[in-house]
DUF91 domain-containing protein (Halanaerobium congolense), 185 residues
Amino acid sequence: MLFNIEEENTKFKIGGRYIQKLASEIGIREKNIENWIADNPQLIFPNEEILTIGQSISGRSMADVLALDTTGNLIIIEIKRDWSNRKTIGQLLEYAAKFKDVSYDRLAEEVKKYNKWEEGELYDKFLDFADDKEFPRKDIGKRQRVMIVAPDSDSGLKRVIDWLKDYGVPVEFVPFGVCQESCRI
């Protein structure tokens, strides 16, 4: 059970209880979650610095979020608001295949379509946070990491992810929960 702990002067009191719900039950859309992750990648990468370079556009078949990590890996993220199953891994791998031999110019084109991108060159922004300040421009995005972000999944998806990991595929399942305050105590 989750509780809201409030500080009042120097004492702490329980302010209310939270109940986990499905995102759809409280009106959260998948696009809301996508925006939160794109704008705040630390939500799913608490120990890494991440540069968001793209987001899904209505009518285009692409991953929900594209990002780079400090070692130049392209991170391809698929988000499901309530549930994920083995079909999701197929969808994610299809998106990853589209970026298999991605060029720097192709990534720079994605950046141009990303309406939250501030002015500036992709390579310059990448170097600002990269581990290797001399990282070759041509190598950005050549390696990939793929992620599914969802509250839960069926056992089929979990088995497929475990199998892919056994063969060295950099795939992760990141669960999340949404809670709503149910009552004041």
In short: The first strand starts at residue 2 and ends at 8. Strands lie at 2-8, 11-21, 50-55, 65-69, 74-79, 144-150, 171-175, 178-184. The mean pLDDT is 90.
